[in-house]
Amino acid sequence: QLLSYQTAADLLGCSRALISDLALAALAAAEINAGKRRLDDVPPRLRPYLNLGFPIPQRVGRRLMRLDPAELQAYVKRGNHKGG
Fold first, then answer.
1. Does residue 33 sit in helix, strand or coil?
2. How far apart (Å, rounded) are the C-alpha atoms in residues 3 and 71?
3. What is the CA 11 to chain-centroid distance, rounded?
4. In this structure, what is the dihedral angle of CA atoms 30, 35, 37, 43, given to the nearest 10 degrees?
5. What angle do the packed helices 5-12 and 16-33 form, to 10 degrees?
6. Do 4 and 64 touch, CB atoms closer than 8 A?
7. Which of 57, 77, 78, 81 is the most buried (most CB within 10 A)?
């Protein structure tokens, strides 16, 4: 079962807003790597999170995004998340 941003935040001990920024940065990084977006087009607040390897969220509705729990666990195991 896919995780909501709030559930992911609870599991990682951080805010939902941070999870949202990490997810947006993951989407932006994928677009940059695919040549669909330039770094200059990424908001400055997201740039520090671009290369952390956060899981790319999956769209489950028109506006609803969710995270794969296995990918989130792998992200944590890599040591990229320190909480906060």
1. helix
2. 11
3. 14
4. 50
5. 110
6. no
7. 57
Distance CA 34, CA 69 (A): 24
Residue 1, token pair as written in the block: 């079962």
User: How far apart (Å, rounded) are the C-alpha atoms in residues 67 and 84?
Assistant: 19
Whole-model pTM above 0.85? yes
Place of tokens 């807003």: 17
Report the alpha-carbon distance of residue 37 to residue 66 in Å, rounded: 22
CA distance 41 to 3: 28
> What is the spatial distance between Cα 49 and Cα 14, in angstroms, rounded to a whole number?
15
pLDDT tens figures, 34-47: 999 999 999 999 99
- Residue 19, SS3 per DSSP: helix
